[in-house]
Design brief:
Blueprint lengths: L3 H89 L3 H7 L1
Length: 103
């Protein structure tokens, strides 16, 4: 039979092991809840950030559309300018009737 002292030491060690496990469980529980809240917060904010990013991209699309419309107008006016300058330069050439009078 074991002396009382060694049985008491074993019970004390067993109790200290249980208290250590219980203490760790009490520390891990709130950390798990905090982790859950962080994940939920991340998912919740992701939805809001996607909505914000969709608004920003929509604004960029409208800005890009306005630039494209201005670019089409510039190309059209450049074509008109090109055609008008070509016609003006053709009018500046001497006509065959006036050259015949000089010869």
């Amino acid at each position: 039979m074991l002396p009382v002292n060694s049985v008491g030491n074993k019970l004390f060690l067993a109790r200290s092991d249980d208290t250590l496990k219980l203490g760790l469980q009490l520390l891990v529980g709130p950390l798990q809840e905090l982790d859950l809240f962080c994940v939920l917060f991340l998912l919740h904010n992701t939805a809001f950030s996607f909505a914000f990013l969709y608004r920003v991209t929509l604004g960029f699309k409208f800005i890009n559309l306005s630039f494209q419309i201005h670019f089409i107008f510039l190309q059209f006016f450049n074509l008109l300018l090109h055609v008008s300058l070509t016609l003006f330069s053709l009018e500046c050439f001497s006509h065959t009737e006036s050259n015949a009078a000089l010869v």
